[in-house]
Specification:
Elements (H helix, E strand, L loop, with lengths): L5 H18 L4 H17 L1 H12 L4 H27 L2 E3 L9 E8 L2 E5 L7 H12 L3 E5 L5 H14 L5 E3 L4 H8 L5 E5 L2 H12 L5 E4 L5 E4 L5 H13 L11 E5 L3 H15 L16 H16 L3 E4 L13 E4 L16 E7 L2 H9 L6 E5 L3 H10 L4 E4 L20 E2 L4 H7 L1 E8 L15 H11 L1
Parallel strand pairs: 3-4, 3-6, 4-5, 6-7, 8-9, 8-13, 9-12, 11-12, 13-14
Antiparallel strand pairs: 1-2, 2-16, 7-15, 10-11
Length: 468
């Protein structure tokens, strides 16, 4: 699959928009058929997908690829197929007493052509779940996978070309210049997943065309651990969330806020949990994923070194392999908010631990920073839990666990503030990529006609009734 030029992008968009206008929106039967064909092609090429992911990462757990890429993707498609008929039904709306002979309803109308920009960390699910959502909503789509996962992008292109004509769905590849040109196209909606820095550029480019955007970004997602909570239980679940895809997950636990009396117990339990989950080590392990490339490996190594140089305690929980970009888990104690590791999203298997004295102090710490994409709370006290949820703002929350809100198909997924704009998944995805078109049908009799001459005093009576 060869890279496209900016001129190619315009031609593809023009062709898709013309096809959308000429053919009109697909009906329920066609949308379900397209989703089933997409699912069948994904399952048919399961082995190709896993091999491509290993090629791009160098070392990528096949088990993780199935669990975090394919299962959520297939479940999402199944959910859309099952519920699409209900979402597409016109919704009856209230008509006031003065217009009771009329009828009002809302229909969900496809917006047209959707541009999808996918990231490298989960290059299959974060490309094809948005694509499936666009199809369910009745749109046509152009998909731009990440240039950093070229093998996976090639397989995605093969999947799409096997079942969709280019005027319905097209996969385009290219470098940052192509990505910038893609963002500047006058799409009817853009759905971007990636970093906050790039998301701002996408939003700026889209604004020139008044193109609506859904931005799924990231940030520093905190873990708040209530005093006295089972450290073994919390450590297992935080380790799972932190080490999945070697921490290269937008909703990975970024740092932990632990009561000062529980810090050492948590640190010990976390080390045990990491060793239990990866008893075979890291370099060359079939169950652990490498950092994508040299740039990101060196960035993470620099964060660790910088933290150590400023006096933090660095606990390395395994052996690295710089050659293969394998970074073993790292636990950081005695971390301060001013350190570089607390100034940017980590996006790797490095967990800083900070302490608090009161729950209000932990809440204030979170609220003093940009709003995160996810928040994790561990605790059994409902009053304390509700206090944290009520007084913080984040994209989503998992209580007594990590990551699991993402795979709930009936929950919206999205950020707020620096962590994103808008939401998708399930019904919310369908709503995001459709337009709510209000329709009113006027009946034979309409009280509004009595507001017009020559009804005189009757007009005044009705006017006073309405304006009282």
């Amino acid at each position: 699959m060869s890279d496209v030029t900016p001129a190619d992008l315009h031609r593809i968009l023009d062709r898709q928009r013309a096809a959308f206008l000429n053919a009109g929106p697909p009906d329920l039967k066609q949308r379900r058929a397209d989703l089933r064909r997409l699912k069948a092609e994904i399952l048919k090429r399961r082995t190709d997908i896993v091999h491509a992911l290993k090629t791009d990462f160098g070392q990528r757990s096949e088990r993780e690829s199935a669990i975090v890429e394919l299962i959520p993707l297939v479940q999402s498609i199944n959910y859309m197929i099952a519920h699409l008929g209900h979402w597409m039904k016109p919704q009856r709306r209230h008509v006031s007493a003065y217009f009771q002979c009329g009828r009002a309803w809302v229909v969900r109308q496809p917006v047209g052509v959707v541009g999808i920009i996918a990231p490298w960390n989960y290059p299959v699910s974060l490309a094809l779940v948005p694509l499936a959502t666009a199809i369910a909503a009745g749109n046509r789509a152009m998909l731009k996978p990440s240039e950093f996962t070229s093998a996976t992008s090639a397989v995605i292109g093969e999947i799409v070309r096997a079942i969709f004509p280019p005027e319905q769905v097209s996969v385009v590849t290219g470098n940052g210049e192509v990505g910038a040109a893609f963002s500047a196209l006058p799409f009817d909606h853009i759905l971007f997943t990636g970093s906050t820095a790039v998301g701002k550029k996408v939003a700026e480019a889209a604004a020139r065309n008044l193109t609506p955007v859904t931005l799924e970004l990231g940030g520093k997602s905190p873990v708040v651990i209530a005093p006295g909570f089972s450290m073994r239980r919390v450590a297992d679940r935080v380790a799972f969330g932190k080490l999945t895809n070697a921490g290269q997950t937008c909703i990975a636990p970024d740092y932990a806020l632990v009561h000062e009396n529980d810090r050492d117990a948590f640190a010990a339990a976390y080390q045990d949990a990491v060793k239990k989950q990866h008893p075979g080590g890291y370099a060359g392990s079939p169950d652990y994923t490498a950092i994508l490339n040299t740039h990101h490996y060196e960035r993470l190594s620099g964060l660790i070194d910088n933290t150590a140089a400023q006096g933090a305690q660095v606990i390395r929980l395994g052996t690295d392999s710089a050659t293969d970009h394998v970074l073993a888990p790292v636990l950081l104690l005695d971390v301060t908010p001013q350190m570089a590791v607390m100034q940017e999203e980590i996006f790797g298997p490095v967990l800083p631990v900070l302490t608090y004295r009161t729950l209000d102090e932990a809440i204030a710490f979170i609220n003093a920073r940009p709003r995160p994409l996810a928040l994790y709370y561990f605790g059994d006290n409902r009053i304390e839990r509700d206090r944290v949820l009520k007084n913080t703002v984040s994209g989503n929350v998992t209580i007594n666990g990590t990551l699991m809100h993402y795979v709930q198909d009936d929950l919206p997924f999205g950020g707020v503030g620096d962590s994103g704009i808008g939401a998708y998944h399930g019904k919310e995805g369908f709503m995001t990529l459709t337009h709510a078109r209000g329709v009113y049908r006027q009946g034979r009799f309409n009280a509004a006609t009595l507001l017009q001459p020559p009804f005189g005093k009757l007009t005044d009576v009705i006017t006073n009734l309405i304006l009282r």
